[in-house]
Amino acid sequence: MLCCQAGVWVLAIRLFVWHNSGFTQAIFEKAPETRRCQLLEQLEQQLDRFNLAERKAALKQILAGLADGRIKVKPVGRRVNLHAHTFFSFNCYGYSPSKFAWLAKKEGLAAAGIVDFDVLDGADEFLDAAAALNVRGCASIETRVYVPEFSDLVINSPGEPGIAYHMGSAVPFGTLSGAGKVFLDRLKETAQRRNREMMERVNAYLDPVRLDYEKDVLPLTPAGNPTERHLCLAYARKARVVCKDDMALLAFWKDKLGCSLHPQDFPESPALLNAIRAKTMKKGGPGYVAPDAGAFATMQQMNEFVLAAGGIPTLAWLDGTTEGEQQIERLLDIAMNTGVAALNIIPDRNFTPGVEDQKLANLRQVVALADARGLPILVGTEMNSFGQKFCDDFESAELKPMIPVFLKGAHILYAHTVLQRAAKMGYLSPWAKKCFCQADDKNSFFEAFGRAVEPKQIDTLRLEASMSPDDILKTVNA
C-alpha cells in the first residue's frame, strides 16, 4: 500500500514538473544568479581592502565576469562624477580607487574621476583600473592654498579669509620625482602635522576620550593620510569604548557638543560625526587655530606644481555666496594669471530641487562665465560626507540644461589625461600651445578626442608631437 502511494506521489511530482517546466527552470536559473550576486558583492567588498594585491585580485575576477557575460552593467549614459574622494583621504563609504572605477562602470557613467586631499596615492591605481574597465577616467588632487590678493575675503573655506580649496585636475601620473615629489611630500607632512596638533587640543577638551594617533587614527587609512573626518570617526569609536553604556555615551556627547542628539545617532551616525567636526575642529572649536599666511602654499605655488606634474590647475567653486566668490570675475583673473585653466563645481550643493533661489542663479552665472572664458568644467559629488550621492542628478530640471557643458568638460579632462600620458601632448602642453591660438578650438579638439577614443583603444594609438590635431582625429576616427 505504501509502495503504491509512493508511486502515485512520484508520478504526481513528475506530472507537476512536466506541466510546470518553465516554473521549475526559472527556479534553477535564479539560484545561479543569486550566487553570482553574492560573489560580486564579496568581490566589491574585497575592492575596498587596504591590501593592493587583494584589490587587484578582486578586479581581475570582475573583469573575467564582464568578459564572459556573467556580470552585467548599465549602458553608458550622460552622468559623470569627476570629484570622488577615495579612502586615500576620506570616502564615507570606504571606496578604494579600484572600487570607484568599478562602480562607475557598473552604473554606466560617461566618465569618472577621483580626487584626494594632499596626495596622489590613488591616481595610478584608479587610472589603471578605469582603463581595464574601459571607463574614461582622470585623477586629481585637492588642497588648501593662500590667495594673498583676497587676504581679507572669505573665498570657499568657511570663516577663513584668503584661504581657498584648490585643485590640480587630470594629473597623468601619481608617482612623481624631483621637485614634484618634494612638494607633494610637504603637502602631506604639513596636513598631518596640523592634524596631530589639532588632535592634542581636542583630546584636552574631550578628556577622558583621548586618541592615540598611531593606534586609533592611522589604522583607519591605507597610506597614512588621515583627515579631520578620520579623527571624527576615531573619536566616536573611542567614546563608545570609554563610556560604559548608552546612557553614559549620550550624556558625554550632549555635554561636550551641546547640541540635540538622539539615541539613533550613536555610536557613529553622520549627525554625530558632523557635530564632532563642527564643534571641536572648525572655527570657534577647541581644536581650531586660524591659519596664517604661511600655513599653506600660495595658489601660484600650487599651480606651478600642478603644471610641472602635467595636470590642469583648477579653481574650486563653492556656491557664490561668500564675499570672495561674489567677486568671481576678479578671482578668475587672478587664478588664470597664475595658471588656472579649469573650474570645479559640486552641483548638488548649488541648488534645491524645484526652487529658484540665489544659489541656482549663481550656479548658472558661473557656468556661463566659465564657458565664456573657455574653462572646462568638471563636476562631482565628493562622497567624503555621509549622505552624498554617488552621482549628481543630471536629469533634474536645474541641471539638465547644463549636461552638455558637464560632458564637454569630462571629455576634455579625459582626453588631456590620455594625450599627456601617451606623448606629453596634453591640454597645457607646448604642443597644445603651438597648435591652438583660441581656447574654443582647443576645447573642440580635446572634446572630440575624448569622445572618440575609448580606453581600450589607447594602446593602439600612435601619437607623435609632429602630428596636427586634424591628423590625430583622422587617425582615431579611421
Biggest β-sheet: strands ordered side by side in the sheet: 1-2-3-4-5-6-7
User: What is the average per-residue confidence, as pLDDT, rounded to a whole number?
Assistant: 91
The helix tally amounts to: 17
What would you call the shape? Answer: globular
Number of self-contained structural domains? 3
The overall strand count is: 7
CATH homologous superfamily (4th level) name of the largest domain: Metal-dependent hydrolases
Largest sheet features? 7 strands, mixed
Radius of gyration of CA atoms, rounded to a whole number: 26 Å
Q: CATH topology of the largest domain, which one?
A: TIM Barrel
Broad structural category: alpha/beta
Can you describe what's shown?
There is one protein chain. It is built from 17 helices and 7 strands. The protein is of the alpha/beta class and 478 residues long. It folds into 3 domains: 2-67, no CATH class; 81-174 and 309-419, TIM Barrel (Alpha-Beta Barrel), CATH 3.20.20.140; 189-280, no CATH class. Strands 1-2-3-4-5-6-7 form a 7-stranded mixed beta sheet. β5 (312-316), α12 and β6 form a beta-alpha-beta unit. α14 packs across α16. The longest helix has 29 residues, at 178-206. It is globular, with a radius of gyration of 26 Å.
